[in-house]
Structure formats: C-alpha cells, structure tokens
Design brief:
Layout (H helix, E strand, L loop, with lengths): L1 E6 L6 H10 L3 E6 L10 E4 L21 H9 L3 E5 L1 H8 L6 E3 L7 E9 L15 E8 L3 E3 L2 H9 L3 E6 L18 E5 L5 E4 L17 H8 L1
Parallel strand pairs: 1-2, 1-3, 3-4, 4-11
Antiparallel strand pairs: 5-8, 6-7, 6-9, 9-10, 10-11
C-alpha cells in the first residue's frame, strides 16, 4: 500500500503520521504543499498542526494550496483520504467534507486523552473496530468544535456518515463527555462514499504501549485490509 503525507508550513504531526504509516508497512512519501502532482497513492493524509500558522482561519490557506487540486482529484476517483485535526479543518475548507470547525466551547486549547465511540465499521478506516468500539485516544486542538446546521446533522445521522462521537469510558454519549462543544459530540465524519475521513483525535499518537494506548493502531490495520 502506498501513501502520501502532505506537508504544509506549520504542520507539526507530519512526522508522527509518517512513523505510524511506516510501522504498519505502508510505503509513504512526504509531499510538499507547493507540489502540483501526487505520487501514486492509495492513501493521502492531511496531518495535524497549524498550517500557515492559522493566521487567517484554521485550514483556510492550506485548503487553497497547489497540491489540494490533485488531492481533490484523488478523492473524486475514490482514493482514500484521511484528515487528522488540522487536516480535518482543511477538508472542510476545501469542501471535501461538510460542516466547519469552530473554537472550542471554553475558548482554550485542549490536549488530553479522551474516549470516543466508533459508530460505523463498514468502511476502509474502521473495519477492525468491530470488537472494540470504545477507544482511548489523544486530542490536541483549539478549534475542534464541529458545527453544522440541523439539516446537515440529520443527513449525517440518516446516512450513517458519523465516524466517531466523544463518549465516556462506558460509551455513554453526553454533554459531560464532550470536550469541545461539538454538535452531537461529533469527533469525526465521512463523505458519502466513505473514502474520506476527517477526525479531530490523533490515531498516530496512539500506536504503541509506551504511549497512552494502542487504540489508534486499528485504523492503520483497517486500511491495510
């Protein structure tokens, strides 16, 4: 399996995701944002960080960068596309996913482990979570508050496009288990074809027992399937 990680000025999780991909024997290349063509890729990853310093709006400038045109072509052809944290923000700014990511409810940067519930296993990213649908995973963001109007939220629910929701250790989804104020506790969503996943939590930081958990590993194992 071949992957490409897109690197923007201000990306700070690009090496983390590269290490994770390589750990699971996915052949990866780093692609600078100013390139215009992707190498042959089964999977493209938009990593976390602060692309362009978030100076205009989180993910806004990155969503208009040169390489994004080819990323859009890749996705429209059915190629797998994963956006993590800032990458999720870029996906919404590039109109590859609906909704928008706003400032966290308490207007503070959050960096901690949370629990999320995996809601959809019928896709290339989450099939290995069938036997473990409540996972512990890190978040680290200032603008992770997923917002959408009621019509869009209903559509996401009806079409089973919500990948993850924030929950407690028992899997209960409620206001207390929502770290950032996201609509309906949403932590990640798919496009309609489910070949694009945007998520705020960081699976690449959860792939080794010396880290907080290995629960992120199952995303990479699912991709290999």
């Amino acid at each position: 399996m071949n992957s490409s990680v897109i690197v923007f000025p201000g990306s700070n999780c690009d090496r983390d995701i590269a290490v994770a991909l390589e750990k699971f024997k996915i052949k990866n290349k780093m692609v600078w944002h100013n390139e215009t063509n992707l190498p042959k890729s089964d999977l493209v990853v938009l990593p976390g960080g602060f692309s362009y310093g978030d100076y205009l709006r989180t993910g806004c400038i990155a969503g208009k960068s040169k390489i994004i045109n080819d990323v859009i072509k890749h996705a429209k052809k059915g190629g797998l596309l994963l956006g993590i944290c800032n990458g999720f923000q870029i996906l919404t700014e590039a109109s590859l996913l609906p909704g928008i990511l706003l400032r966290n409810k308490k207007l503070k940067f959050i960096s901690k482990d949370v629990f999320i519930k995996v809601l959809n296993f019928k896709n290339s990213f989450c099939s290995n979570y069938k036997d473990k649908n409540i996972i512990k995973i890190p978040i680290a963001h200032n603008e992770g508050n997923f917002f959408a109007n009621n019509n869009l939220l209903d559509r996401l629910e009806d079409k089973n496009l919500i990948a993850f929701k924030y929950c407690d250790i028992k899997g209960d989804i409620n206001e207390l288990s929502n770290p950032n104020g996201s609509s309906k506790n949403i932590a990640g969503i798919f496009n309609e074809n489910k070949n694009i996943l945007g998520m705020m939590p960081h699976p690449e930081r959860s792939i080794d027992p010396f880290l907080s958990s290995e629960d992120g590993s199952l995303i990479f194992k699912s991709l290999l399937k």
